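User: quick one
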Amino acid sequence: MPEIVVISGKGGTGKTSLTAAFAHLAGRPVICDLDVDAPDLHILLDPVRKRSEDFVSGHEAVIDPTRCTGCGQCAQACRFGAIVPDGPRYRVDHLRCEGCKVCVTICPAHAVDFVPRHCGEWYVSDTRFGPMVHARLFPGQENSGRLVSLLKTEARRIAEETGRELILSDGSPGIGCPVISSLAGATLAVAVTEPTPSGRHDLERVTALCDHFRIPVAVVINKCDLNPGEAERIAATALARGHALAGRLPHDPVVVTAMVARKAVTELPETPFAASLREIWRTIETLAGQRTRSASRA
Amino acid sequence: MIVSIASGKGGTGKTTVSASLASIWDAPVVAVDLDVEEPNLHLFLRPELSPPEVVNIEIPVLNEAACSRCGACAEVCQFKAIAMLGDTPLVFPEMCHGCGGCLRVCPTEALSPGTRELGSLMRGRAGRIEFLMGRLRVGEAMSPPLMRAVKAALSALIAGAPRDAVVDAPPGVSCPAVSAVIDADIVLLVAEPTPFGVHDFRLAVEAFTPLGKPLAVAVNRAGIAPAEEAGLRTFCRGRRLPILATIPYDRAIAEGYARGRLVADLSPGLRATFTALRDGLRAHYAKEAVHA
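Assistant: Done. Structure below.
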Protein backbone atom coordinates (compact mmCIF):
# COMPACT_ATOMS: atom_id res chain seq x y z
CA MET A 1 0.00 0.00 0.00
CA PRO A 2 1.41 3.43 -0.87
CA GLU A 3 2.53 5.57 2.07
CA ILE A 4 3.08 9.21 1.18
CA VAL A 5 4.77 11.49 3.73
CA VAL A 6 4.80 15.26 3.32
CA ILE A 7 7.97 16.85 4.70
CA SER A 8 9.89 20.09 4.18
CA GLY A 9 12.99 20.57 6.31
CA LYS A 10 12.04 24.18 6.93
CA GLY A 11 8.82 24.87 8.79
CA GLY A 12 6.07 27.03 7.36
CA THR A 13 6.52 26.10 3.69
CA GLY A 14 2.94 24.78 3.47
CA LYS A 15 3.11 21.09 4.44
CA THR A 16 -0.14 21.01 6.36
CA SER A 17 -2.20 23.11 3.91
CA LEU A 18 -1.04 20.87 1.08
CA THR A 19 -1.63 17.66 3.04
CA ALA A 20 -5.24 18.72 3.75
CA ALA A 21 -5.82 19.31 0.04
CA PHE A 22 -4.21 15.96 -0.85
CA ALA A 23 -6.46 14.26 1.72
CA HIS A 24 -9.43 15.86 -0.05
CA LEU A 25 -8.21 14.78 -3.50
CA ALA A 26 -7.02 11.26 -2.62
CA GLY A 27 -9.31 8.30 -3.00
CA ARG A 28 -10.02 6.64 0.35
CA PRO A 29 -6.91 7.62 2.35
CA VAL A 30 -6.04 6.99 5.96
CA ILE A 31 -4.75 10.34 7.17
CA CYS A 32 -1.96 10.63 9.69
CA ASP A 33 -0.60 13.73 11.43
CA LEU A 34 2.98 12.79 12.27
CA ASP A 35 3.88 16.30 13.46
CA VAL A 36 3.19 15.19 17.01
CA ASP A 37 5.09 18.12 18.45
CA ALA A 38 2.96 20.94 16.97
CA PRO A 39 0.11 19.25 15.09
CA ASP A 40 -2.13 21.49 12.99
CA LEU A 41 -3.85 19.22 10.46
CA HIS A 42 -6.83 18.74 12.80
CA ILE A 43 -7.58 22.47 12.48
CA LEU A 44 -8.52 21.91 8.82
CA LEU A 45 -9.98 18.41 9.07
CA ASP A 46 -12.10 18.82 12.22
CA PRO A 47 -11.69 15.21 13.41
CA VAL A 48 -14.31 13.56 15.60
CA ARG A 49 -12.46 11.43 18.14
CA LYS A 50 -13.42 7.75 18.27
CA ARG A 51 -10.63 6.56 20.46
CA SER A 52 -8.14 8.24 22.77
CA GLU A 53 -5.09 6.53 24.28
CA ASP A 54 -2.31 7.56 26.63
CA PHE A 55 1.20 7.49 25.22
CA VAL A 56 3.47 6.18 27.95
CA SER A 57 7.07 5.76 26.86
CA GLY A 58 10.26 5.44 28.81
CA HIS A 59 10.75 6.45 32.43
CA GLU A 60 12.01 9.34 34.47
CA ALA A 61 13.96 9.51 37.69
CA VAL A 62 12.41 11.00 40.84
CA ILE A 63 14.46 11.48 44.00
CA ASP A 64 12.62 10.76 47.24
CA PRO A 65 13.76 13.56 49.61
CA THR A 66 13.07 11.39 52.68
CA ARG A 67 15.61 8.79 51.52
CA CYS A 68 18.18 11.10 49.81
CA THR A 69 21.33 11.54 51.92
CA GLY A 70 22.72 14.34 49.77
CA CYS A 71 25.88 12.44 48.76
CA GLY A 72 25.71 13.86 45.22
CA GLN A 73 26.92 10.75 43.39
CA CYS A 74 23.89 10.91 41.10
CA ALA A 75 24.59 14.52 40.12
CA GLN A 76 28.21 13.61 39.29
CA ALA A 77 27.19 10.64 37.17
CA CYS A 78 24.35 12.30 35.24
CA ARG A 79 25.47 13.17 31.72
CA PHE A 80 22.42 15.36 31.10
CA GLY A 81 22.82 17.89 33.91
CA ALA A 82 19.41 16.75 35.13
CA ILE A 83 20.24 16.44 38.84
CA VAL A 84 20.42 19.74 40.66
CA PRO A 85 21.09 20.66 44.30
CA ASP A 86 17.97 21.37 46.34
CA GLY A 87 18.99 22.57 49.80
CA PRO A 88 21.12 19.85 51.40
CA ARG A 89 19.74 17.23 49.00
CA TYR A 90 19.18 16.85 45.26
CA ARG A 91 16.23 16.80 42.91
CA VAL A 92 15.70 15.79 39.26
CA ASP A 93 14.97 18.47 36.67
CA HIS A 94 12.47 16.44 34.71
CA LEU A 95 12.88 18.61 31.60
CA ARG A 96 16.52 17.54 31.36
CA CYS A 97 16.12 13.91 32.51
CA GLU A 98 16.41 11.46 29.61
CA GLY A 99 15.40 8.44 31.68
CA CYS A 100 18.70 6.56 31.42
CA LYS A 101 18.45 4.96 34.90
CA VAL A 102 22.10 5.61 35.80
CA CYS A 103 21.19 7.54 38.97
CA VAL A 104 18.68 4.85 39.96
CA THR A 105 21.38 2.20 39.55
CA ILE A 106 24.15 3.93 41.48
CA CYS A 107 22.30 5.63 44.37
CA PRO A 108 23.73 4.03 47.54
CA ALA A 109 20.57 4.99 49.50
CA HIS A 110 18.19 3.61 46.86
CA ALA A 111 16.49 6.99 46.96
CA VAL A 112 15.76 7.34 43.25
CA ASP A 113 12.46 6.02 41.94
CA PHE A 114 12.02 5.29 38.27
CA VAL A 115 8.50 6.04 37.11
CA PRO A 116 6.87 5.53 33.71
CA ARG A 117 6.63 8.70 31.70
CA HIS A 118 3.25 9.81 30.39
CA CYS A 119 4.47 11.66 27.29
CA GLY A 120 1.26 12.41 25.44
CA GLU A 121 -1.97 11.13 23.96
CA TRP A 122 -2.95 9.70 20.62
CA TYR A 123 -6.28 9.49 18.89
CA VAL A 124 -8.18 7.70 16.16
CA SER A 125 -10.80 9.96 14.62
CA ASP A 126 -13.17 10.30 11.70
CA THR A 127 -12.93 13.19 9.26
CA ARG A 128 -14.88 14.09 6.13
CA PHE A 129 -11.98 12.68 4.06
CA GLY A 130 -11.49 9.43 5.97
CA PRO A 131 -10.11 8.05 9.22
CA MET A 132 -7.36 10.05 10.88
CA VAL A 133 -4.66 9.01 13.33
CA HIS A 134 -3.11 11.85 15.30
CA ALA A 135 -1.47 12.66 18.60
CA ARG A 136 -0.28 15.28 20.95
CA LEU A 137 3.10 15.01 22.62
CA PHE A 138 3.12 16.90 25.92
CA PRO A 139 5.40 19.95 26.09
CA GLY A 140 9.08 19.22 26.51
CA GLN A 141 8.67 15.47 26.07
CA GLU A 142 10.98 13.09 24.28
CA ASN A 143 10.22 9.94 22.34
CA SER A 144 8.51 11.72 19.46
CA GLY A 145 10.06 9.10 17.15
CA ARG A 146 8.38 6.27 19.07
CA LEU A 147 5.04 8.08 18.95
CA VAL A 148 5.41 8.59 15.20
CA SER A 149 6.10 4.86 14.73
CA LEU A 150 3.08 3.99 16.84
CA LEU A 151 0.80 6.25 14.74
CA LYS A 152 2.08 4.70 11.53
CA THR A 153 1.46 1.17 12.81
CA GLU A 154 -2.08 2.17 13.78
CA ALA A 155 -2.69 3.82 10.38
CA ARG A 156 -1.57 0.63 8.60
CA ARG A 157 -3.87 -1.46 10.77
CA ILE A 158 -6.84 0.80 9.99
CA ALA A 159 -6.02 0.81 6.29
CA GLU A 160 -5.99 -2.98 6.19
CA GLU A 161 -9.15 -3.35 8.25
CA THR A 162 -11.14 -0.85 6.24
CA GLY A 163 -9.71 -1.64 2.81
CA ARG A 164 -8.29 1.86 2.33
CA GLU A 165 -5.72 2.29 -0.39
CA LEU A 166 -3.34 4.99 0.77
CA ILE A 167 -1.69 6.33 3.91
CA LEU A 168 -1.16 10.07 3.68
CA SER A 169 0.97 11.64 6.42
CA ASP A 170 1.77 15.20 7.37
CA GLY A 171 5.34 15.21 8.67
CA SER A 172 7.24 17.54 10.97
CA PRO A 173 9.92 20.11 10.16
CA GLY A 174 13.60 19.32 10.64
CA ILE A 175 15.68 16.23 9.90
CA GLY A 176 15.86 14.66 13.38
CA CYS A 177 14.17 11.91 15.32
CA PRO A 178 10.48 12.35 14.32
CA VAL A 179 11.31 12.95 10.64
CA ILE A 180 13.53 9.87 10.48
CA SER A 181 10.72 7.81 12.04
CA SER A 182 8.14 9.22 9.63
CA LEU A 183 10.27 8.24 6.62
CA ALA A 184 10.68 4.58 7.65
CA GLY A 185 8.81 2.44 5.12
CA ALA A 186 7.49 5.41 3.13
CA THR A 187 6.76 4.89 -0.57
CA LEU A 188 7.31 8.52 -1.45
CA ALA A 189 8.41 11.65 0.39
CA VAL A 190 6.79 14.84 -0.89
CA ALA A 191 9.19 17.66 0.00
CA VAL A 192 7.50 21.07 0.09
CA THR A 193 9.91 23.97 -0.22
CA GLU A 194 9.97 27.68 -1.01
CA PRO A 195 12.49 29.70 -3.05
CA THR A 196 14.19 31.38 -0.11
CA PRO A 197 17.73 30.84 1.23
CA SER A 198 16.30 28.82 4.15
CA GLY A 199 13.88 26.85 1.98
CA ARG A 200 16.61 25.80 -0.41
CA HIS A 201 19.17 25.02 2.30
CA ASP A 202 16.71 22.96 4.36
CA LEU A 203 15.38 21.11 1.32
CA GLU A 204 18.91 20.01 0.48
CA ARG A 205 19.35 18.54 3.96
CA VAL A 206 15.99 16.82 4.16
CA THR A 207 16.31 15.31 0.68
CA ALA A 208 19.83 14.13 1.58
CA LEU A 209 18.16 12.39 4.52
CA CYS A 210 15.66 10.74 2.13
CA ASP A 211 18.54 9.64 -0.12
CA HIS A 212 20.31 8.23 2.94
CA PHE A 213 17.27 6.06 3.70
CA ARG A 214 16.59 5.40 -0.02
CA ILE A 215 13.15 7.03 0.01
CA PRO A 216 12.15 8.51 -3.37
CA VAL A 217 11.45 12.25 -3.34
CA ALA A 218 8.98 14.48 -5.19
CA VAL A 219 9.62 18.20 -4.73
CA VAL A 220 6.86 20.83 -4.65
CA ILE A 221 8.04 24.45 -4.89
CA ASN A 222 5.51 26.61 -3.08
CA LYS A 223 5.48 30.44 -3.20
CA CYS A 224 7.57 30.06 -6.37
CA ASP A 225 7.04 33.67 -7.53
CA LEU A 226 8.74 35.13 -4.42
CA ASN A 227 12.06 34.53 -6.14
CA PRO A 228 11.58 32.95 -9.60
CA GLY A 229 15.31 32.56 -10.26
CA GLU A 230 15.81 30.64 -7.02
CA ALA A 231 12.75 28.50 -7.83
CA GLU A 232 14.36 27.50 -11.14
CA ARG A 233 17.63 26.64 -9.40
CA ILE A 234 15.77 24.48 -6.88
CA ALA A 235 13.95 22.70 -9.72
CA ALA A 236 17.20 22.07 -11.60
CA THR A 237 18.93 20.78 -8.46
CA ALA A 238 16.05 18.42 -7.71
CA LEU A 239 16.18 16.88 -11.18
CA ALA A 240 19.98 16.67 -11.14
CA ARG A 241 19.79 14.68 -7.90
CA GLY A 242 17.29 12.23 -9.35
CA HIS A 243 14.29 13.62 -7.49
CA ALA A 244 10.97 14.16 -9.22
CA LEU A 245 9.53 17.66 -9.57
CA ALA A 246 5.83 17.43 -8.71
CA GLY A 247 5.12 21.06 -9.52
CA ARG A 248 5.13 24.71 -8.56
CA LEU A 249 2.60 26.83 -6.70
CA PRO A 250 2.42 30.63 -6.41
CA HIS A 251 2.48 32.68 -3.19
CA ASP A 252 -1.28 33.01 -2.91
CA PRO A 253 -3.39 34.43 -0.04
CA VAL A 254 -6.04 31.78 -0.82
CA VAL A 255 -4.02 29.42 1.40
CA VAL A 256 -4.70 31.65 4.43
CA THR A 257 -8.33 32.16 3.31
CA ALA A 258 -8.80 28.38 3.32
CA MET A 259 -7.07 28.05 6.70
CA VAL A 260 -9.31 30.71 8.23
CA ALA A 261 -12.36 28.88 6.78
CA ARG A 262 -11.00 25.59 8.25
CA LYS A 263 -11.12 24.04 4.78
CA ALA A 264 -8.71 22.44 2.34
CA VAL A 265 -7.84 24.95 -0.37
CA THR A 266 -9.36 22.58 -2.97
CA GLU A 267 -12.73 22.71 -1.16
CA LEU A 268 -13.12 26.44 -1.83
CA PRO A 269 -14.54 27.73 -5.16
CA GLU A 270 -11.97 26.81 -7.82
CA THR A 271 -8.84 28.99 -8.06
CA PRO A 272 -5.72 28.73 -10.24
CA PHE A 273 -3.85 27.68 -7.09
CA ALA A 274 -6.25 24.77 -6.49
CA ALA A 275 -6.06 23.76 -10.16
CA SER A 276 -2.25 23.57 -9.94
CA LEU A 277 -2.60 21.58 -6.74
CA ARG A 278 -4.85 19.02 -8.49
CA GLU A 279 -2.19 18.61 -11.20
CA ILE A 280 0.46 18.15 -8.52
CA TRP A 281 -1.63 15.54 -6.73
CA ARG A 282 -2.09 13.56 -9.98
CA THR A 283 1.69 13.56 -10.44
CA ILE A 284 2.26 12.43 -6.85
CA GLU A 285 -0.32 9.63 -7.16
CA THR A 286 1.31 8.42 -10.36
CA LEU A 287 4.78 8.46 -8.78
CA ALA A 288 3.57 6.64 -5.66
CA GLY A 289 1.71 4.08 -7.78
CA GLN A 290 4.81 3.37 -9.87
CA ARG A 291 6.88 2.93 -6.73
CA THR A 292 4.33 0.61 -5.14
CA ARG A 293 4.14 -1.55 -8.28
CA SER A 294 7.90 -1.75 -8.67
CA ALA A 295 8.25 -2.61 -4.97
CA SER A 296 5.67 -5.41 -5.22
CA ARG A 297 7.44 -6.85 -8.31
CA ALA A 298 10.79 -6.82 -6.52
CA MET B 1 21.10 38.75 28.70
CA ILE B 2 20.41 35.64 26.64
CA VAL B 3 17.34 36.04 24.41
CA SER B 4 15.92 32.85 22.92
CA ILE B 5 13.70 33.27 19.86
CA ALA B 6 11.15 30.45 19.69
CA SER B 7 7.75 29.88 18.13
CA GLY B 8 5.94 26.55 18.29
CA LYS B 9 5.02 26.57 14.59
CA GLY B 10 7.85 26.53 12.08
CA GLY B 11 8.23 29.29 9.52
CA THR B 12 6.72 32.07 11.62
CA GLY B 13 9.86 34.18 11.33
CA LYS B 14 12.25 33.08 14.11
CA THR B 15 15.32 33.37 11.90
CA THR B 16 14.09 36.64 10.36
CA VAL B 17 13.69 38.16 13.82
CA SER B 18 16.93 36.67 15.20
CA ALA B 19 19.03 37.95 12.29
CA SER B 20 17.59 41.45 12.34
CA LEU B 21 17.72 41.69 16.13
CA ALA B 22 21.38 40.64 16.18
CA SER B 23 22.15 43.10 13.38
CA ILE B 24 20.83 46.13 15.31
CA TRP B 25 22.08 45.03 18.76
CA ASP B 26 24.08 47.91 20.27
CA ALA B 27 26.21 45.94 22.73
CA PRO B 28 28.61 42.99 22.33
CA VAL B 29 26.46 40.11 21.11
CA VAL B 30 26.72 36.49 20.03
CA ALA B 31 24.20 35.21 17.49
CA VAL B 32 23.62 31.50 18.15
CA ASP B 33 21.84 29.05 15.87
CA LEU B 34 20.41 26.25 18.01
CA ASP B 35 18.12 24.98 15.25
CA VAL B 36 20.77 22.35 14.58
CA GLU B 37 18.54 20.22 12.34
CA GLU B 38 17.97 23.07 9.92
CA PRO B 39 20.30 25.97 10.82
CA ASN B 40 19.58 29.05 8.68
CA LEU B 41 20.83 32.06 10.62
CA HIS B 42 24.17 32.04 8.78
CA LEU B 43 22.33 32.45 5.46
CA PHE B 44 21.21 35.92 6.56
CA LEU B 45 24.09 37.08 8.80
CA ARG B 46 26.71 35.59 6.42
CA PRO B 47 29.49 35.19 9.00
CA GLU B 48 33.00 34.17 8.11
CA LEU B 49 33.15 30.70 9.59
CA SER B 50 36.15 28.82 10.92
CA PRO B 51 36.46 25.14 10.02
CA PRO B 52 33.76 22.96 11.61
CA GLU B 53 34.61 21.26 14.92
CA VAL B 54 33.25 17.71 15.05
CA VAL B 55 30.99 17.01 18.04
CA ASN B 56 30.72 13.41 19.18
CA ILE B 57 28.65 11.49 21.66
CA GLU B 58 30.15 8.69 23.72
CA ILE B 59 28.93 5.22 22.79
CA PRO B 60 30.01 1.79 24.05
CA VAL B 61 32.44 -0.38 22.11
CA LEU B 62 32.45 -4.07 23.00
CA ASN B 63 35.56 -6.18 23.44
CA GLU B 64 34.01 -9.62 23.05
CA ALA B 65 37.05 -11.41 24.44
CA ALA B 66 36.60 -9.66 27.80
CA CYS B 67 32.79 -10.04 27.91
CA SER B 68 31.42 -12.43 30.54
CA ARG B 69 28.00 -12.44 28.81
CA CYS B 70 26.23 -11.45 32.00
CA GLY B 71 23.77 -9.18 30.17
CA ALA B 72 23.97 -6.34 32.74
CA CYS B 73 24.63 -3.77 29.98
CA ALA B 74 21.53 -4.72 27.99
CA GLU B 75 19.50 -4.71 31.18
CA VAL B 76 20.52 -1.20 32.24
CA CYS B 77 20.18 0.36 28.77
CA GLN B 78 16.84 2.17 28.50
CA PHE B 79 17.25 3.03 24.84
CA LYS B 80 17.48 -0.41 23.22
CA ALA B 81 21.06 0.41 22.23
CA ILE B 82 22.32 -2.93 23.54
CA ALA B 83 20.43 -6.17 22.97
CA MET B 84 21.45 -9.72 23.84
CA LEU B 85 21.71 -11.87 20.76
CA GLY B 86 21.76 -15.28 22.38
CA ASP B 87 24.33 -14.68 25.10
CA THR B 88 26.27 -11.96 23.26
CA PRO B 89 25.58 -8.24 23.59
CA LEU B 90 24.96 -6.46 20.32
CA VAL B 91 25.48 -2.67 20.26
CA PHE B 92 23.24 -0.40 18.15
CA PRO B 93 25.29 2.81 18.26
CA GLU B 94 22.63 5.04 16.65
CA MET B 95 20.20 4.33 19.50
CA CYS B 96 22.67 5.32 22.24
CA HIS B 97 22.01 8.49 24.31
CA GLY B 98 25.55 8.49 25.74
CA CYS B 99 24.48 8.08 29.38
CA GLY B 100 27.46 5.85 30.20
CA GLY B 101 25.28 3.40 32.16
CA CYS B 102 26.51 0.27 30.38
CA LEU B 103 30.16 1.15 30.97
CA ARG B 104 29.42 1.63 34.66
CA VAL B 105 27.65 -1.69 35.18
CA CYS B 106 29.95 -3.92 33.11
CA PRO B 107 31.80 -6.07 35.68
CA THR B 108 34.62 -7.09 33.33
CA GLU B 109 35.38 -3.76 31.64
CA ALA B 110 34.46 -5.31 28.31
CA LEU B 111 32.92 -2.01 27.19
CA SER B 112 35.06 0.99 26.42
CA PRO B 113 34.07 4.49 25.29
CA GLY B 114 33.86 5.06 21.54
CA THR B 115 32.24 7.87 19.57
CA ARG B 116 29.38 8.58 17.22
CA GLU B 117 29.47 11.83 15.28
CA LEU B 118 26.51 14.07 16.10
CA GLY B 119 27.43 16.91 13.80
CA SER B 120 29.58 19.97 14.00
CA LEU B 121 30.01 23.19 15.89
CA MET B 122 30.95 26.26 13.87
CA ARG B 123 32.25 29.60 15.10
CA GLY B 124 32.47 32.79 13.14
CA ARG B 125 32.01 36.50 13.01
CA ALA B 126 29.86 38.83 10.94
CA GLY B 127 31.19 42.35 11.49
CA ARG B 128 30.85 42.95 15.23
CA ILE B 129 28.49 40.00 15.73
CA GLU B 130 30.08 36.84 17.05
CA PHE B 131 28.49 33.72 15.68
CA LEU B 132 27.97 30.14 16.86
CA MET B 133 26.03 27.37 15.21
CA GLY B 134 25.45 23.65 15.46
CA ARG B 135 24.81 21.53 12.40
CA LEU B 136 23.38 18.05 12.89
CA ARG B 137 24.87 15.29 10.72
CA VAL B 138 22.28 14.16 8.14
CA GLY B 139 20.98 10.81 9.40
CA GLU B 140 21.60 11.61 13.08
CA ALA B 141 18.34 11.52 15.08
CA MET B 142 19.34 13.27 18.31
CA SER B 143 19.69 17.01 18.35
CA PRO B 144 19.71 17.80 22.12
CA PRO B 145 23.27 16.53 22.79
CA LEU B 146 24.64 18.67 19.94
CA MET B 147 22.65 21.62 21.26
CA ARG B 148 24.27 21.05 24.66
CA ALA B 149 27.70 21.34 23.02
CA VAL B 150 26.72 24.63 21.34
CA LYS B 151 25.33 25.97 24.61
CA ALA B 152 28.55 24.99 26.39
CA ALA B 153 30.51 26.97 23.77
CA LEU B 154 28.23 29.96 24.38
CA SER B 155 28.71 29.70 28.16
CA ALA B 156 32.48 29.62 27.67
CA LEU B 157 32.34 32.77 25.52
CA ILE B 158 30.19 34.61 28.03
CA ALA B 159 32.40 33.47 30.91
CA GLY B 160 35.40 34.93 29.04
CA ALA B 161 33.80 38.34 28.57
CA PRO B 162 30.21 39.27 29.42
CA ARG B 163 28.03 39.80 26.38
CA ASP B 164 24.48 39.30 25.22
CA ALA B 165 23.23 36.45 23.07
CA VAL B 166 20.45 36.16 20.51
CA VAL B 167 19.54 32.49 20.13
CA ASP B 168 17.54 31.12 17.19
CA ALA B 169 15.64 28.08 18.54
CA PRO B 170 14.15 25.15 16.65
CA PRO B 171 10.38 25.01 16.06
CA GLY B 172 8.03 22.92 18.16
CA VAL B 173 7.56 22.49 21.89
CA SER B 174 9.17 19.09 22.53
CA CYS B 175 12.63 18.30 23.87
CA PRO B 176 14.75 20.18 21.29
CA ALA B 177 12.72 23.39 21.62
CA VAL B 178 12.69 23.26 25.42
CA SER B 179 16.39 22.46 25.42
CA ALA B 180 16.98 25.64 23.37
CA VAL B 181 15.16 27.99 25.73
CA ILE B 182 15.88 26.37 29.10
CA ASP B 183 19.08 28.37 29.66
CA ALA B 184 17.78 31.69 28.33
CA ASP B 185 17.10 34.80 30.41
CA ILE B 186 14.09 35.81 28.32
CA VAL B 187 12.10 34.02 25.62
CA LEU B 188 10.71 35.90 22.65
CA LEU B 189 7.92 34.01 20.87
CA VAL B 190 7.37 34.87 17.23
CA ALA B 191 3.66 34.47 16.54
CA GLU B 192 1.95 34.34 13.16
CA PRO B 193 -1.71 35.39 13.39
CA THR B 194 -3.11 32.51 11.33
CA PRO B 195 -5.14 29.57 12.67
CA PHE B 196 -2.03 27.32 12.65
CA GLY B 197 0.18 30.06 14.04
CA VAL B 198 -2.13 30.95 16.92
CA HIS B 199 -2.75 27.28 17.78
CA ASP B 200 0.98 26.51 17.98
CA PHE B 201 1.70 29.80 19.76
CA ARG B 202 -0.67 28.72 22.54
CA LEU B 203 1.13 25.36 22.73
CA ALA B 204 4.42 27.23 23.05
CA VAL B 205 3.08 29.49 25.83
CA GLU B 206 1.83 26.39 27.65
CA ALA B 207 5.22 24.68 27.20
CA PHE B 208 7.45 27.60 28.15
CA THR B 209 5.45 29.24 30.98
CA PRO B 210 6.46 26.55 33.54
CA LEU B 211 10.13 27.42 32.91
CA GLY B 212 9.50 30.58 34.94
CA LYS B 213 11.27 32.89 32.49
CA PRO B 214 10.01 36.20 31.21
CA LEU B 215 8.11 35.66 27.94
CA ALA B 216 7.46 38.29 25.29
CA VAL B 217 5.88 38.24 21.85
CA ALA B 218 6.65 39.52 18.37
CA VAL B 219 3.74 39.35 15.93
CA ASN B 220 4.93 38.64 12.39
CA ARG B 221 2.78 38.91 9.23
CA ALA B 222 0.37 41.16 11.11
CA GLY B 223 -2.77 41.85 9.09
CA ILE B 224 -2.79 38.48 7.30
CA ALA B 225 -5.93 37.26 9.14
CA PRO B 226 -7.51 40.05 11.24
CA ALA B 227 -9.96 37.93 13.26
CA GLU B 228 -7.24 35.45 14.28
CA GLU B 229 -4.97 38.35 15.17
CA ALA B 230 -7.60 39.91 17.43
CA GLY B 231 -7.86 36.54 19.21
CA LEU B 232 -4.08 36.38 19.54
CA ARG B 233 -3.89 39.87 21.05
CA THR B 234 -6.69 39.12 23.50
CA PHE B 235 -4.93 35.91 24.53
CA CYS B 236 -1.66 37.81 25.09
CA ARG B 237 -3.41 40.43 27.22
CA GLY B 238 -5.06 37.73 29.30
CA ARG B 239 -1.71 36.05 29.92
CA ARG B 240 0.07 39.39 30.45
CA LEU B 241 2.43 38.67 27.57
CA PRO B 242 3.80 41.94 26.19
CA ILE B 243 3.77 42.28 22.39
CA LEU B 244 7.07 44.05 21.78
CA ALA B 245 7.05 44.14 17.97
CA THR B 246 4.56 43.97 15.13
CA ILE B 247 5.92 43.20 11.67
CA PRO B 248 3.35 43.68 8.92
CA TYR B 249 2.32 41.12 6.32
CA ASP B 250 3.90 42.62 3.24
CA ARG B 251 4.91 40.94 0.02
CA ALA B 252 7.99 43.20 -0.17
CA ILE B 253 9.23 41.73 3.13
CA ALA B 254 8.64 38.16 1.87
CA GLU B 255 10.53 38.96 -1.34
CA GLY B 256 13.36 40.63 0.59
CA TYR B 257 13.64 37.53 2.78
CA ALA B 258 13.59 35.31 -0.33
CA ARG B 259 16.66 37.21 -1.50
CA GLY B 260 18.47 36.79 1.80
CA ARG B 261 18.02 40.40 2.96
CA LEU B 262 17.77 41.41 6.61
CA VAL B 263 14.30 42.72 7.31
CA ALA B 264 15.74 45.50 9.50
CA ASP B 265 17.60 46.76 6.41
CA LEU B 266 14.50 47.00 4.20
CA SER B 267 13.22 50.35 5.54
CA PRO B 268 13.86 52.86 8.35
CA GLY B 269 10.46 51.93 9.80
CA LEU B 270 11.36 48.24 10.04
CA ARG B 271 14.70 49.13 11.56
CA ALA B 272 12.90 51.18 14.20
CA THR B 273 10.65 48.16 14.88
CA PHE B 274 13.72 46.09 15.76
CA THR B 275 15.45 48.74 17.87
CA ALA B 276 12.17 49.13 19.81
CA LEU B 277 12.05 45.34 20.18
CA ARG B 278 15.59 45.32 21.57
CA ASP B 279 14.76 48.08 24.07
CA GLY B 280 11.48 46.36 24.95
CA LEU B 281 13.26 43.07 25.67
CA ARG B 282 15.74 44.80 27.96
CA ALA B 283 13.00 46.67 29.81
CA HIS B 284 10.83 43.55 30.19
CA TYR B 285 13.75 41.49 31.41
CA ALA B 286 14.74 44.19 33.94
CA LYS B 287 11.17 44.41 35.22
CA GLU B 288 10.69 40.64 35.50
CA ALA B 289 14.11 40.20 37.12
CA VAL B 290 13.01 42.60 39.90
CA HIS B 291 9.86 40.52 40.41
CA ALA B 292 11.77 37.24 40.48
